[in-house]
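yo

u said u wanted the structure for the complex thing, so here. seqs first:
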Amino acid sequence: MRSPKMLKIVKRFLSADKEKQYEHTKCFTDVLKKLKKKENALKNKLKHENNEKNRKQIKKELEIVHAQRKKGIDALKKLKKNS
Amino acid sequence: MIKKIFLPTILFVLAYGFWVSPDFKEISAGVAVFLFGMLFLEEGFKAFTGGLLEKILQKTTNKLWKSLSFGVVSTTLMQSSSLVSVITISFLSAGLISLAAGIGIVFGANLGTTTGAWLIAGFGLKVKISAYAMPMLVFGIILVFQKSKHLKGIGYILAGLGFLFLGIHHMKEGFEAFRTTIDLKAFSVSGYPGLFLFALLGVAATVIMQSSHATLVIIITALAAQQITYENGLALAIGANVGTTITAIIGSMSSNVQGKRLAGAHLIFNLVTAVIAIIFIYQIMAVVDIFSSAVGIASDDYTLKLAVFHTIFNTIGILAMIPFINQLVNFLTRTMPEKEVSIAMPKFLSEAALAIPDTAIESVRKETIHLYDNAFAIIAHSLSLHRHDILSERDVSDIIAGTDKPMSIDIDSEYSRNVKGLYGDIVSFISRAQMDMTSEQGDELFELRSVGRDIVEAIKDTKHLHKNLSAYIVSDNQYIRDEYNKIRTNLMTVLRSLEEAKSGGDILSLDNLKLEMKQNDTTANGMLEILIHEDRITAEMATSLMNDTSYTYDVIKHLLQMGEVLFATGDLSMKTVERSLALDDIEMQEILDSQQDK
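structre next:
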């Protein structure tokens, strides 16, 4: 393992606060990945849906997922800025 | 009575021994320092148990070979099969692992514990161990005073190892000096009588000291000082293996039936291993001699040969028992059946679960889900709906149309019987669990306590709307009937969505419901005005509907709040992050406004 990477890991390990931040950052990344996957699945579903009522419902769900992702991305940016 | 005289007796015997023999004093002090080191080691490893251990346990115990390996590795690292047993019983009590997985871990722990004998015989006796002990103690204690939880943990582990080594040093010195005053070998007994006697002594010593490691250290140091014969030493080791189950048995007393089953499995396994070892002891000794000469262990190095014997007979035990794990699980399940308890009794709140913060939190979560299940039944029947219909795939409107007769339910009685007591037990458990937790863990428990309150509020609000709902779903007025069926439809949709979130762990999907609820709230009153204006419903019906729409809104709000907390899965960090992404009222309104603009 290269020294800067190792140093980063050791620094993180020794600093409890930094470790918590790293954990949170990782969690945000994982959740955002899940939401992106969900968004893509909904977009795909919308493409193949002809029923107007169902299309409206899927569009609402897409808006929600999009809003959640935006919230997560903003929070992640703030975390990275502070670390 | 026995408990009351046991401790003073032990203290008296020890005091007499110290007065009579300074060498005995050194050996006893060595044992005490060794046991103190084990306590420090346990404390050290606890610092690393939060979250990480749960993740590892859940990922590494879905197959037998994984749980066996986990048992071997964790016991080797922590040098304490007792700690591994306590952790396993705690996780089993909280329903985090299965009984078969727990048995696999215990089997593995038995093998892992043999590394202790190797460490002591191979390293502890061959070097000037106190030279290693002192710097470990110094650095360890310095780290113990650090703020960082991990540094503190490492400090405890280092200092624990230092005390372990120091204990071994004093026992070694003590037995060497003892040789000049008393020759314990004069009390040796050969043959099978000796085997049984010394095996029993090994059991007794381990039960008293609650540590097979401590017994093994005494055996090995006594063997090294030629105070006991090789054969008697082997018998003591076999006895120590059985005696070590006492920790699991004591630990299981405060656990639920699963924990007791695991303790039973531990005892059965160790007894079977001991019986095999005693019956075939001479054959195993021959195998030990062959193995020892193959790896270069001297024929008169009885301490290392004892370590080889310890490993071989435990391995034989595992190989003998592995094919019968399922039969063992069935036997234990049959002989220790789950007591039939009413749905009002807690299922997951046990003393064993309190041992580790993560298992305490998981127990509270599972018990609160149990509370929700009881509340679900009350809410469903209050809406004149069957639980199985709500959980089915059938169309909501078909179910509403098909259940047009009100169901009789005494909500107060159901609440008192199936909710109130259980909620009280959860709150009481939470207050006890909060003692030894980090702030994040404490916050999680606080959230779960709020969930209990949400569930109770949801039932109370349902009770308020139940009376009118039961009357108006059979009303001659089609409009009021339709409005109250809309209320039933809304609540049924919420209950269904909550079940999906519960099984899928996707709490963010609940935001869809929140949006719909907000939308319905804005339109519902519009419909009400039309109905009043066009004289479709009476004034009395209108006021009832207004109040009951408000109660419905509150029920849904409480249930969604509950769902966001209760059905989140993963570790604490993941739960906190997911909940933080749930949209608040302002964000919901922005979406509604953007939809209206379109």
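Chain B has 27 helices and no strands. The CA atoms of residues 238 and 274 of chain B lie 6 Å apart.
cya
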